[in-house]
Amino acid sequence: MDPEGAHSLYADHHAWLYGWLRRKVGCAAAAADLAHDSYVRLLAARRMPAPDQSRAYLMQIAKGLVIDQSRRREIEAAFLETLSVLPEELWPSPESRAIVLETLEKIDAVLYALPSKVRETFLLSRFDGLTYAEIAARLHVSVASVRKYMVKAVYACLPLVAE
Question: What range(s) does the RNA polymerase sigma-70 region domain occupy (predicted)?
Answer without folding.
Answer: 9-73
